[in-house]
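A quick aside before the break. I want you to see a complete sequence-to-structure record at least once, exactly as it would be stored in a machine-readable document. Don't worry about memorizing anything.
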Amino acid sequence: MKILHKIKDVRNFVKEEKGKNKSIGLVPTMGFLHQGHLELVNKSLADNDITVVSIFVNPAQFGPNEDFESYPRDFNRDISLLKEKGVDCVFAPPVDEMYPENFATKVVVRGLTETLCGNKRPGHFEGVATVVTKLLNITDADRAYFGKKDYQQLKVIERFVKDLNINTKIKGIPIVREKDGLAVSSRNIYLSDDERKSALSLVKSFDVVQNLLDEGERDADVIRERVIDFISGFKNTNIDYVSIVDPETLEYKGLIEDKFLLALAVYVGKARLIDNKIF
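That is the input. The structure line, written in tokens, reads:
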């Protein structure tokens, strides 16, 4: 497995492999790999001749009061896991390789970024869209893999890839959950035992919604308030948002007439957790 830190080295590696008519799969990560990441890796390994995994904690997608400095990192463990999987190349650039002096360009996606996490984390999706655009250009990937836990991120990436005619197929992979139902996340490490129990309020709220739908409830505001009451009933929880939106446009839904996305962001202790489900 190659471990590369320079853009030119990754491009040379990809050019050489494509010269042999090999397909390239990309799994972009911020490291501290968990089973969710490894499912993306498994899918890439199954679909492509060559798999590249990037490890880069992207400062551009963190706000001034967010956890960039304390974001969990364990590069040696990540490398060990990826070697075991049979990954071909790891791209682990330093910040100044991705954002050199006088870097002045951003990729901005309108509409999709103005709700949910975009409303709560100004500039976040500009940082995501910019770095993913760079990674897709650097690796010239045939396919790139993203988890559906970050549902809004997936929709933003699908949008700019289409709009900018980037020749990469974006593949969304279902949410991976731990045995108790909690969506896997690098931030789960922040949770104490008590907080972990409270974190399960997110996935358990899906049953609250399904029960209301089964009873005939179709007012999105009523359903949303019931979910808020349910999650707030657990200690250590502080709701960032509970939203019911169209799964494609991410626009607010008032009356439920067809499928919808329930999107959640909740602080449990100091960990900001997200989850979602399409009903």
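Two observations worth writing down. The radius of gyration is 19 Å. Residues 124-139 form the longest helix (16 residues). We'll return to this after the break.
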